[in-house]
Amino acid sequence: MRRLTTAGAVVAAGAIILTGCGRGDGGGASGPESKGSIDDEPATGAVEVWAMGNEGEVLGQLAAQFEEENPDVTIDVTAVPWESAHDRIATAIAGGETPDISMLGTTWVGEFAATGAFEPTPDGLVDEGSFFDGSWDTTIVDDVAYGIPWYVDTRVLYYRTDLAEAAGVEAPETWDEYKAFAKALQAQGATSGVSLPPGGFDSWQYVTPLAWQQGGDILDGETFTLDSPEWQEAFEFYGSFFEEGISEPVRLEGGEIEQKFIAGEVGSFYSGPFHVSLLLEQGGAEFADKFAVAMVPGADSRTSFTGGGNLAVFNDSDNRDASWKFVRWLAEPETQVQWYDISTDLPSVEAAWDDPVFSDDPYLSVFGEQLTDSKAPPAIPTWAQVSAVIDQELEKVTRGETSVEDALAAVQQQAESIGTGQ
């Protein structure tokens, strides 16, 4: 997924555990406490917001409406490139020169919350039950919420409907059906029945859901469980697609996957919602009837990976009240629908999905369904380091360089050595 992968790249490249506490003292080991509830009076004063990538470029359009509704407030948006965002936030915290609000990649929350730089979400600011569970969980660090989920991404299965129809198969729901489905697409001429990354950068996002689908997890309390039977089965199942030649051991970069899918060389792949428009644009009108999306196939569940972008208020914001009021407004269902129109970011608030723009769309409605069964990794400061080990060892498995048992033993050992950073 474009946004998920971009955020992960920044984390992997620059993950550090910070000790600074922004513009103030910060809290102790348990972090700072919220400074109280936020009233319903109009927002006033200036609010500085950092937002990454496309979100930073277009947020000003939405902020203008908030300014109309709150005439005495000014929202100043700074667009920050994803590739420099992580280090820029880290430097700002260390130097005590932070904005009021920052957008965060979901896998960054644990790392930056550990610095004491962000204020916990005030009680009663939003109804946490209004968000998708997996999305809200990305804000939680040591049972404390920092900020809110702003937009969400998840993965579903893209597949060639014409190849599936020719093979007489339907979108798979189980693991057994999934493998048979991919083989059937190959029989219709696809080189890869399903395209999977053969390990390496961010491949943990593809294999981890296979463990979750069996009831496995990354942590049990503060103990890593990366060598559990569920992880063993996940690695074996994932590796079997390469052993059996169902997925080519080639990592397809941006642009390649679309062209190979349109050409019929790739029968299916996993991705986020942005690929719908790319395929419709690049494949032309005649291609619209040749592909569809479906929830990911699973074992005991059909859990997928979720990510996206969160919003957090710095612990020493110069305009705390107006900052939280803007964040709260961005989480209103009506605002989230408008934000989709501007940015194509998917809403984190479930009620927004009742709007026909989502519920009546054959692609987006599947993403909404998948978001009810999606999950994110734990918000621990060291996740970037731990996930990089999973990426590395999974690649050794798919290339036949090591056994699953040895790979997971290495993952568990190194994860324990890295620790949770908490």
Write the layout of secondary structure elements.
Blueprint: H1 2-14, E1 45-52, H2 53-69, E2 73-80, H3 82-95, E3 101-105, H4 109-113, H5 133-136, E4 140-141, E5 144-145, E6 148-154, E7 156-160, H6 161-167, H7 175-187, H8 204-212, E8 219-220, E9 223-224, H9 229-243, H10 256-263, E10 268-271, H11 274-283, E11 291-294, E12 304-313, H12 320-330, H13 333-343, E13 346-347, H14 356-359, H15 364-371, E14 374-375, H16 383-398, H17 404-418
Parallel strand pairs: 1-2, 1-3, 12-14
Antiparallel strand pairs: 3-12, 4-5, 6-12, 6-13, 7-10, 7-11, 8-9
Architecture overview:
The protein has 422 residues and is α+β, with helices and mostly antiparallel strands. The chain has 17 helices and 14 strands. Helix 1 crosses helix 3, helix 2 crosses helix 13 and helix 8 packs across helix 9. The longest helix has 17 residues. The relative contact order is 0.19. The N terminus is likely disordered. This is Sugar ABC transporter substrate-binding protein. InterPro entries: Bact_solute-bd_prot1, SBP.
Given helix and strand content, the structural type is alpha+beta
Helix content: 40-55%
Q: At CATH's second level, what is the architecture of the largest domain? A: 3-Layer(aba) Sandwich
Shape: globular
CATH third-level topology of the largest domain:
D-Maltodextrin-Binding Protein, domain 2
Annotation field: number of helices: 17
At the first level of CATH, what is the class of the largest domain? Alpha Beta
Low-confidence stretches: 1-30
- Structural domain tally: 2
What's the gyration radius in Å? 22 Å
Report the sheet-strand fraction.
5-15%
Largest sheet: 7 strands, mixed
CATH superfamily of the largest domain: Periplasmic binding protein-like II
User: How far apart are the first and last residues' alpha carbons, in Å?
Assistant: 29 Å
Report the mean per-residue pLDDT as an integer: 92
Quick one: how many beta strands?
14
